């Protein structure tokens, strides 16, 4: 990387260190935009048309091209390709090229590698925990600019989704694929254990009771993956902030609150169930807990709403799958879930015409018809309220009635800084640190409070380093 300017903005030397640090961490986790397919218009008029006239006609007919970097593979990529194909067919003046850039970490690394050149995208999908970095990088044009210029009706979107990406009084990115965590349970196993299959546990205490009732012959009745996202969600469900500074939303976070009462209560509850062999510790991969659930080896688990169809299909009718809200302590009065997933950012180093074209595409993606099809194809939430009025989504909700739980939980979440989600520039690193702390506690290497205190100190130190590099 020879120079560090991006558009009309420039990074300080400190920001370069952040990029290096960020890339190193993401490499532990985890382009060219493709050939130019644009075709010049052909002049078939009479021979007395001049070459300059031909050039003008060709230019006038040439569509604005935009490149969209995304991180959806499998069914998600198929759904994206259909969206792009349909948009291009209906918007001959704009042509979008969707390019898969690997997982979120890989895509963000490639974006950073493109700094100072024109090789980057016009539009990029970035996961929610990359939000603070994207804003601080000065690489984006907030979508609020186009919303204001276009008088776009934000009230048409789900407020509990847009709240996450509204930072500093403006919507910085347009939500795209959105999910939240829910409880999955085996209704048949509930009946066999004498539990009410229509009344899943709603609190920590009820979850523990159910897990013990579902356990038999020394085999745990439930499993929870060691996933930092779950800890973040269990904080929000207690209306507890994850970092200071109003969860990083009122001012830049300088301290992790991981070892606060909410964190200690959560990890002690989790460890107690593991120690009592009521909950299995199957590691960090949610696919492992999902597989155990689908095979009937455990009767309860937690996972994203985006996994609902995959889980139901994997069960294949062997038992009836029930869903419930994410549990919280009985004494937690308010709270709710934080949306996960990713959003779409418009890059500011591209010509105005391309940025406006990207906005036109974003509006198309946010339309009720497209959002309904996207939700049905992928299992993610529609970001647009009117998508639920589309027949294709109504039919899908009838086929997968468990999804209504996710919708109800989203709408039931109270509006606060806690449920809007934490904001910090070192979130990918923080999530890994948290997962390490959970592992230490569950494996008996440290007491829950000590594990969280040590992790909080590490995250706080990372925050200080990061903040020192940002203007």
TrEMBL record:
<dbReference type="InterPro" id="IPR006059">
    <property type="entry name" value="SBP"/>
</dbReference>
<keyword id="KW-0813">Transport</keyword>
<keyword id="KW-0732">Signal</keyword>
<comment type="similarity">
    <text>Belongs to the bacterial solute-binding protein 1 family.</text>
</comment>
<dbReference type="GO" id="GO:0030313">
    <property type="term" value="C:cell envelope"/>
</dbReference>
<protein>
    <submittedName>
        <fullName>ABC transporter substrate-binding protein</fullName>
    </submittedName>
</protein>
<dbReference type="Pfam" id="PF13416">
    <property type="entry name" value="SBP_bac_8"/>
</dbReference>
<feature type="signal peptide">
    <location>
        <begin position="1"/>
        <end position="27"/>
    </location>
</feature>
<dbReference type="InterPro" id="IPR050490">
    <property type="entry name" value="Bact_solute-bd_prot1"/>
</dbReference>
């Amino acid at each position: 990387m020879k120079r560090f300017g991006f558009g009309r903005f420039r990074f300080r030397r400190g920001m370069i260190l952040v990029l290096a640090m960020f890339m190193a961490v993401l490499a532990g986790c985890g382009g060219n935009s493709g050939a130019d397919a644009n075709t010049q218009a052909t002049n078939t008029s009479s021979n007395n048309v001049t070459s300059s006239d031909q050039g003008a006609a060709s230019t006038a007919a040439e569509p604005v091209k935009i490149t969209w970097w995304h991180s959806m593979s499998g069914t998600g990529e198929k759904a994206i390709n259909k969206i792009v194909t349909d948009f291009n067919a209906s918007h001959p003046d704009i042509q979008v090229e969707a390019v898969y850039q690997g997982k979120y970490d890989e895509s963000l690394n490639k974006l950073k590698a493109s700094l100072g050149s024109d090789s980057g995208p016009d539009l990029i999908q970035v996961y929610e925990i990359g939000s603070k970095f994207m804003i601080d990088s000065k690489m984006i044009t907030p979508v609020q600019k186009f919303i204001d210029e276009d008088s776009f009706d934000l009230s048409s979107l789900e407020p509990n989704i847009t709240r996450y990406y509204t930072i500093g009084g403006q919507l910085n990115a347009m939500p795209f694929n959105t999910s939240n965590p829910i409880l999955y349970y085996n209704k048949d196993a509930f009946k066999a254990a004498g539990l009410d299959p229509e009344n899943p546990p709603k609190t920590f205490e009820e979850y523990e009771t159910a897990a013990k009732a579902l356990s038999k012959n020394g085999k745990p009745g439930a499993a929870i993956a060691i996933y930092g996202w779950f800890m973040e969600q269990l904080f929000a469900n207690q209306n507890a902030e994850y970092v200071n500074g109003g969860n990083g939303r009122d001012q830049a976070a300088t301290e992790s609150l991981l070892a606060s009462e909410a964190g200690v209560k959560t990890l002690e509850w989790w460890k107690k169930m593991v120690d009592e062999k009521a909950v299995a510790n199957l590691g960090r991969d949610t696919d492992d807990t999902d597989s155990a659930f689908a095979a009937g080896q455990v009767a309860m688990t937690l996972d994203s709403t985006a996994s609902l169809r995959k889980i139901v299909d994997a069960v294949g009718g062997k038992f009836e799958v029930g869903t419930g809200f994410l549990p919280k302590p009985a004494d937690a009065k308010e709270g709710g879930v934080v949306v996960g997933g990713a959003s779409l950012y418009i890059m500011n180093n591209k010509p105005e015409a391309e940025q406006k074209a990207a906005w036109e595409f974003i509006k198309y993606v946010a339309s009720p018809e497209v959002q309904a099809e996207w939700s049905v194809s992928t299992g993610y939430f529609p970001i647009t309220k009117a998508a639920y009025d589309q027949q294709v989504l109504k039919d899908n909700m009838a086929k997968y009635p468990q999804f209504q739980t996710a919708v109800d939980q989203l709408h039931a979440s109270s509006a606060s800084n806690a449920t809007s989600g934490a904001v910090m520039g070192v979130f990918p690193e923080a999530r890994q640190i948290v997962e390490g702390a959970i592992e230490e506690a569950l494996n008996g290497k440290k007491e829950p409070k000590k594990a969280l205190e040590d992790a909080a100190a590490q995250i706080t130190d990372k925050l200080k380093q990061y903040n020192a590099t940002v203007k």
